[in-house]
Give the backbone structure.
Amino acid sequence: MTPPHRDNGSRDRGSSSEPNQASFFARHEWTLVGLLAILAFLLGCIGYSQTMTFSDVGGPNTWWDVAYSSFRLFIFEAPEETAGWPMYMQIARALAPMVVLYTAAKAVWNVIEEQVALYALLFRKRRFVVVCGIGETGFRIARDYCLNSSKRVVVIDNDPLNALAAELKNYGAIVVCGNAMDPLVLLKSQVIYAKELFLCTSDDKANIAIAKNAERLTRRIKATEVKKLENIARRLEPVVGGEPPDVSLRCFLCVDSPDIYEIFSVHSFFEINSSRFAIRLFNRRETIARNIFRVCAPDLYYRPGSRGNEPMHILFIGFEALVREMILQAALTAHYTDFRLPHITVLCESDNKNRVERFRHRYPHLDKTVDINFVYTDPMTITPETWYEMQTGTHFNVCYVALEHDVESILSARRLNRLRRHSGLAPLNFVVCLNQQNFLAEIIDDDFEPIIMDKLNLPDFEPIEYFESLDETISIEIVVNEALDAMARTLHNAYLNTQLASGGSNRSNASIIPWSELPAHKKKANQHAAAHMDVKLRIANCVALPIDARETEAVFPPDDLMMELLAQLEHRRWMADKYLAGYSYGEVRDEDRMLHPDLIPWEQLTEADKEKDRANIRQIPHLLKLQDLKICRMYHGIETPGRRKPVYDQV
């Protein structure tokens, strides 16, 4: 749950405001050393020129002797008797060998620095993290720890010329060059004593193999050592969501392939949760999609209040992995009190037809959750006539653009908006979802405005928002602290307390277990319920604010009519969740065959089942208070007809 406004400006990698910028000496170290060496040589030359007797006055020395003697100062061969020497000669005599010693020490340190730093990690058990694979995702995780955490950072990458790894070294990270799939490299990085392990290589299969090797290594820890690690973790880690701190090595495994994710999300290895090792699959695309719908939800632009208004109609440009995840988010959350299926149109090139068929077969009940249609044409070359026809048939309320290349996404949104203006059509809000997979993205996004929850001030001329997917999502707060899942944990813990208080047990109900032990599909069910809570609040013209906010707390739901509407809405949301999970209607509940008797319209539910949905609505204020939030009336509400962006009425 989030306050109504949010300011997340783009972060420039080279920003001078970052706290760990190198000091002046670090940036000019060898320039200063060179200047000191030259100074020592010049002072030596001046001193020797005044103490030597030259040949032109009958002495044995020449100017070559002056230079040679000055060079000898650097190898500790200055004269031992220096009585009567000038002060600058004494300075040169001391300064020259000091320069040599510093240079030699620096050379030795460059050789052993990594080994010393890695050995020192033994004194920081459970107070450092390891990141494997320094691409755009691994870089952001490691940088966030370097800049915003007291934990030391170790990064492993097999490319010795990786510029991102070199940048992290400047931030203070320990860089280990090697293949993280090699157990010896993991041992070298002291991974078994780390608090978090992030596997962010570009190969999903490699990430899984690294996780398996890390888990095997943790088995080598002796029982007495495990106890010590538990005590350290309990002392350092706070209690989260009413649960004790996690004392194990937490492994966050990034998996982008939906097929691999589906296979391994129910694999026994990914249910490991012990005092030695705990693993969590991190679906980057799914998390990004949820985050997009948190700050750019369709109903922030338009929300149908009844069947008298046009239904919600969402346009997606492209059919990449992120678009597929956003379609599922729309199917799960775009449900409103008009009780109609949201309409979705996907505009993509014809070579996506095979992907579309696979997607439909993967979610056979998708049509029960959304009314979806595909238009096969290139968004970069779509004709003005086709674009005009698409919008006049039924107006789009919001358009999400997520093509493979960021440049194409930006150009597509701007071109379609320009065609819309030339055709005299009503404004259409665009949300451009940037992949940020190369350095070009860091340049082109410098002038993008921050994403805010209030869409009122988006310009009619160019109502385009740019969502920087990785910068907005890949962070300690979201990935590690599970900010998006905080309400999901709270939901489950409240359910757990209610069931235990009524005499329930794990024997009779497999869900009566701590959040950390829940299977992936049950965690997802709680996450989906939490993701729709903001929508319910906005439907009731309410918002969640910090508990100490000056606004007056409001009654929720405000009246019996809204209670019934939200309870019915919750049932429809629950059915969409079950349908997408693969469930079908069955007179008797059967988890193995994925049958459920409650997959029926609201009107056919028993009063007892309806009361369950009403109870879910009633508990929302209590759940928010557990997160130090309260429900307040919005000073603005979304107007349903006309302009497809918020038009507010004073409460």
Q: What stands out?
A: Residues 2-21, 637-651 have pLDDT under 50 and may be disordered. The radius of gyration is 32 Å.
